Amino acid sequence: MRCHSLAIAISFPIFPAYAVDNKELNVLPIIRVDAEKDIFKQDLVVVKNKNADNKTLGDALKQVSGVQSSAFGPNAGAPVIRSLGGNRVQILENGQSLYGMNAISGNIDIPFDPLFSQSITVNKSSDTVRYGGNAIGGSVDIDTGIIDQVLPEKKLNWNLSLKRAGMILMQRALN
Length: 175
What we know:
By secondary structure, the chain is mainly β.
């Protein structure tokens, strides 16, 4: 016991610590730096759909640099961006996540109809993390053109009519 108390006394010497009294303080000026990072042109690619023969989304994007189609057969081709595919590439339709059975398995096709797609935007930059962890490889946004990007200049009128047993018929008339 005596050796242990001696070892403790030697290992924990108590010395008073004094703060240095320095009257000369150097005040640094405040520097504000503002910058914007633009997405590089090669990281954001817009593909106009002129070929309705594309069977899969991977086929529609096969001419884009850094994008391949997964090889699960002729009818199931998902985009692979810079060797990342599956749940690491976010598939969007009109800005909304497009989850289907393809999120479970790669051999199930993405619900993509080339007849209704006007353009497809491929984003390969690090900006895609705003979509969450499912977009670390990139994102593919399919623009179907169904949702208008700008409001129409025409006035919209809605006509409501009540018919038989409470069925409501709504008609939209454009002026």
